[in-house]
Amino acid sequence: MAFREIARGVYMLAPQRGSFSSNIYLLGGKENVLIDSGLAVDAGRLVSSLAILGILPKNIAMVLHTHGHCDHIGGSVRFPGSQLWMSRHDGRLVNAKDASFTACAMMGQGCYPKIGEFYSGTQVFSINDYRLLAIETPGHTRGSVCFYDADAKVLFSGDTLFKGAVGRHDLASGDKQELAGSIALLSGLDAKMLFPGHGQALKEKTGENFALCNALLD
Ligand SMILES: [Zn+2]
């Protein structure tokens, strides 16, 4: 299994069967940027999947984390020369090696990358042809963010929104009301493609998915 191009310049690495690692997205081209990095135990597979595309760890400029759970951040320890980004709330707890918050305790993990960069309220990343706005979407964790490109109509939704489901709100710092508010906020975006933190990417009927997921939290 390797990275698969799912939109122009966007590649997806789905986890191996049986792994609870997150999806990993690569914005590849002149600049190479990852969105989330999966479990630490699957980091070797991530590095070898990048190598198939001719990309070395030192070629990864940034890892943009959607939130601080261990199944999204563990692979980032392989990119010590890259900028590692996260929200201030979640990033502080990762840097404090909080095993409860990161779900490391629950999932039997113990890897904590050093988060050095924190999103501002209106953070925009220009990466190749994409302009990704980091949108604060609390609810799954307090510091969860999604990334949205208004021109490409692409939404990277982390563990906030999936195909046919919403994220858990019963973990540390999660909140059902906040999650409902975040889903409602995302529903107002003109997203045609949904690239979630787990499960399948969605390239059609995205509006119907929003309607379904809003109803789940009513
Ligand atoms: Zn999560």
From TrEMBL:
Residue ranges of the Metallo-beta-lactamase domain? 21-198
Question: Which keywords fit this entry according to its UniProt record?
Answer: Hydrolase, Metal-binding, Zinc
Q: Does the keyword Hydrolase apply?
A: yes
Q: Which cofactor does it need?
A: Zn(2+)
What are the GO MF terms of this UniProt record? Answer: hydrolase activity; metal ion binding
Query: What InterPro entries does the entry give?
Result: MBL_Glyoxalase_II, Metallo-B-lactamas, RibonucZ/Hydroxyglut_hydro
| The protein's name | MBL fold metallo-hydrolase
Classification lineage? Archaea, Candidatus Iainarchaeota, Candidatus Iainarchaeia, Candidatus Iainarchaeales, Candidatus Iainarchaeaceae
